[in-house]
Request: fold
Amino acid sequence: DREVLSKMNYPIYANVLMSVVSYFLTVRLIPKFRDMFIKGNLYGIDMNKKDGGKVPEALGVVTGCVFLITMFLFIPVPFTDYIFKNADFPHNEFVEMLAALLSICCMLLLGFADDVLDLRWRHKLLLPTIASLPLLMVYYVNFNSTLIIVPKPLRPWFGLSVDLWLLYYVYMGMLAVFCTNAINILAGVNGLEVGQSLVIAASISIFNLVELSGNVWKAHQFSLYFMLPYMATSLALFKHNWYPSQVFVGDTFCYLSGMTFAVVGILGHFSKTILLFFIPQIINFLYSIPQLFHLVPCPRHRLPRYNKETDKLDISVTVFKKSELNVLAKLCLWVFRTLKIVSWKEDKTGLVTCNNLTLINFILYMIGPTSEPSLTIILILIQIMSSVLAFMIRYPLASVFYDI
Ligand code: UD1
Ligand code: MG
Reply:
């Protein structure tokens, strides 16, 4: 028994070893690229600092490349047994690996294009959809299960399971769009993009480790192959991106992360569970809706406002005339005001000053001006607590809704 177990896990041990090497490689590589990126005009201004110096942008491309190289070198490892025995090669598993890497590689390119060219919003929705097509094709060929088990309370109406057919593919395509963009719009304080991604990746890995002893262990092992090197390279980026940031991660990193999560969720067959690890991102998205759909004016940057005197961050605001809002906008804001989750100041002329609708500003509205590193720590703690909640929903609570 133990022999089977060790055989089953040896690719993971190899993966861990390669991840450790890739961590040290990335940590050393990032500073070497700093000046090169600034010379190539790839830099941003840190808006929350006294002396807004040039900070190289889009360093996610470096971690992304090391991640991909690690994965490329890893490709033969899970298949060594078959290669040496020269029999029954599992082409279906092999093609899953290649399609996963193709989608991630594609997204890395698109993210970098976004950082260099500043793409429009419609592209940000279109590109991840297209990048996920190879993945959906492989899912169709290999698995094509679009059945979902209905929760117990709804069974009198829908029966034990429902086949969603095409809708399930639409869902998976949208998952890629959501994961990529949701991370990108929960950003603006040093270390947050990588910090939240690391918590999500760690949560996915814990989930995979737990499920490794179950009967679909292969899918979870597949997910771990990707998560471990991803975490190693991102941890290296985190080191340089933490307050005060020496480098910015860019949309490249957000896209790469979102796509990697979508890939393991889809091909690891846990594309619904994975959303549980995105609770803060879902809240941020829902709260942002009025601005994302331009019901309320949305400035180019919604990150908190920096106060030079106190060196603290406070809410940033958007200003508009109440009479110019349409019905839908008024409804959304009425809901937010009733729930007391927005800062709202209205003068006699009907001019409204409202905080930009992001989770970051909401936290600042609740706790008042805060220094940048403390704010990032609070937001990462929220992400961790949400993951704890996710595990409670997935394990103890799931038995209320499903027979497990
Ligand atoms: C998203 C957000 C935007 C937010 C921006 C900040 C939406 C719809 N878009 O836009 O509101 O302002 O991310 O990342 O919600 N920056 C800092 N400190 C940081 C990180 C970024 O000052 O810790 C600034 C830098 O000037 C950097 C720029 O933000 O150059 C990067 O912005 P970018 O990633 O291009 O913005 P978006 O992802 O389009
Ligand atoms: Mg961004």
The chain has a mean pLDDT of 94. The longest strand covers residues 317-321.
